[in-house]
Amino acid sequence: MADHRDYAAYKRRLARILALYIVGLCAALGLMAWAERKGLSRQWLGPIFLFSTVMIYAAIGIYGRTADAEEYYVAGRRIPAFYNGMAAAADWMSAASFISLAGGLYLQGFSGSDTEPGGLAYVMGWTGGFCLVALLVAPYLRRLGLYTVPDYFSLRYGGRWPRLIAAFAAMLCSFTYVVAQIYGIGLIASRLTGVQFEIGILLGLGGVLLCSFLGGMRAITWTQVAQYVMLLLAFLIPVSWLAYKQMGNPLAPLVYGRQLEKISAMEKVLMASPAEKQVQEEYRRRAAEYEVRLQDIEGSLRRERAAAQQRIRQLKVENADSAHIVAANRELAALPRDPAAARELWTRALHESHQRSQPLGGLLPHSQPFAGDPAGTPAERETFDVSRRNFLALIFCLMVGTAGLPHLLTRFYTTPTVREARSSVVWTLFFIALLYLSVPALAVLVKFEVMQGLVGISFDALPSWILQWAKVDASLISVTDVNGDGIVQFGEIRLGADIIMLATPEIGGLPYVVSGLVAAGGLAAALSTADGLLLTISNAMVRDVYCQEIGHHVTPEQRVILSKFALLAVALVAAMVASLKPADILPLVSASFSLAAAAFVPAMVMGIFWPGATRAGAVAGMLAGLGITVYYMLVNAPALRAILKLSPEPQLWLGIVPVSAGVFGVVLGFAVTAVVSLLTRRAD
């Protein structure tokens, strides 16, 4: 009875602290808005948002520092369901959800295409995945009182190989995921402070380490609660503002359908526009030019290099302006270094030119169910089938991957009881729904702003934010006068998925303080997920591999210290990889879900619900599922195909794109686990 009263008092104290934090955050936003109206420069507002929010999280991380193993790994198992749900939602709503999800819907429409599935698949897959977590996994893992996901495989199946494979898979999928988060941190930090992208990564990385290095799961939990409040405000304020600006009603999820009808009408006008067709024709010409180059790569590269050198010599002979000479030298330096690099670059440019030579710059009509036409030509029917198949495959991988992500499952080890573990899943769904219901609305509202506000204006009147974002990363945004008429056409606008949410306030003409808030929210989303991922990787390295295989006599306190230094090392390596900009955020995150689904879910679920699952079956199933998934992703990676001098066209099975490779891995994993378990049941 005394324990119950103490726990109730503990929850009341937490509620007071949360209420004070929310009030203080709203007051700070009001103060920043007042300062902007009084003339505070944007050059100050951005850094203030960055450093003040990072310092809040750092202060919580320092306050939550601990060397106790129970506190470091599972926060003492005393996090109430409400706050664990909030922390899990922040852990879940990574840079992919906050930064890229609305961008994916903007670019792919509701259903995506045959080559880029997405749209509502991300919303449905990620949300539905929590139903699997609640029904199949979370309560059962919490009942065992473990620390990490590999602990489960060690306990259920025994022996070293199930634990080692699980630890390796946890490191692989978590590292892929954390690279995407650190990439998002670099984008936001560089935009807010004006520093280079690589320096922005290091600035944000400092915030990650301050949150997770000292206090582990205890500190991460409470920083994630604070980060959830930040990212929720950062998402709902601009989408509500845009809805009110466009339709006079801030409840965006309820009213954005009217703008969808207007977008459909605008799309028909754009598809019939002669100026848009001129843009499409120019991209077709460029695609044909790249096809010619790819027929003789070495010869084309020599001619390109010779032409660039001749241009530099000609400019020097004419005593041209130094700026023109510098630009010509940059063009020469930007040429591919060797034929392999040229093949990769020109193949990518060929695909992009082909895509942008289509109506609407290659984008599908926003509300079109799937690409192709089920009643059209054989090619259109095939496209429709492949598009629908990829849509369903991505939903499957995201749902099943949710049930296998180690950093997410570890969150449910932190509750006091199994009942609270179930309740925290429900709270997580609630907190995610608050944001996810507005994501489709935001994509529609931003597309309306672009079609209404950018298309048709003069290039001389382009807003300054386009140039500023292009300086951060030229792949994020470009607006080029392709047909030379001096007027912006829709096909001349290229927006990356990672720019839509971050640039929403500027696209909608909102005050800069809202831009700072959105960037702070994106930073909170990336930091919250990066914290949990880095902790998962370091725990797998130290607790599940080193301490089990090498350091058998390491004390719990020494394990914590080793985990902290492993976390630091992994963070630095992830930052180095992220600085190379390997891919957009959304594909990287989707790939990590496929890896987690294939590696963990078959053996985990069968281990929970089928007593006949054996150690040999689990090992074979995990290796087969993970192996086929990794193989399918690598063999269809454009860079690897270029290195191996394979055909640039990917070799797809059933038309399934590589990010959904987990659909093959999960099916194979279940089948292999079942068959090998039946064959080895007596021996095991």
Low-confidence stretches: none
Number of helices: 28
CATH homologous superfamily title of one domain: Sodium/glucose cotransporter
User: What integer is the average pLDDT?
Assistant: 83
Give the strand line-up of the largest sheet. 1-2
SSE series = HHHHHHHHHHHHHHHHHHHHHEEHHHHHHH
Percent of residues in helices: over 70%
How much strand?
A: under 5%
Shape: globular
Oligomer: single chain
Kindly provide the name of the CATH class of one domain: Mainly Alpha
Structural class label: mainly alpha
Largest sheet: 2 strands, antiparallel
Taking all Cα atoms into account, the compactness measure Rg is: 26 Å
Per CATH, what is the topology of one domain? Sodium/glucose cotransporter
Word description of this protein:
By secondary structure, the protein is mostly helical. The chain has a domain at 2-239 and 388-445 and 510-582: Sodium/glucose cotransporter (Up-down Bundle). It has helices at 2-37, 42-63, 69-74, 81-92, 95-108, 120-144, 149-157, 161-193, 197-212, 216-247, 252-255, 257-272, 274-295, 297-317, 322-334, 339-356, 378-402, 406-409, 418-436, 439-453, 464-472, 504-507, 512-549, 556-579, 585-609, 615-635, 638-643, 662-680; strands spanning 477-479, 493-495. The longest helix has 38 residues, at 512-549. The model has no long low-confidence stretch (mean pLDDT 83).
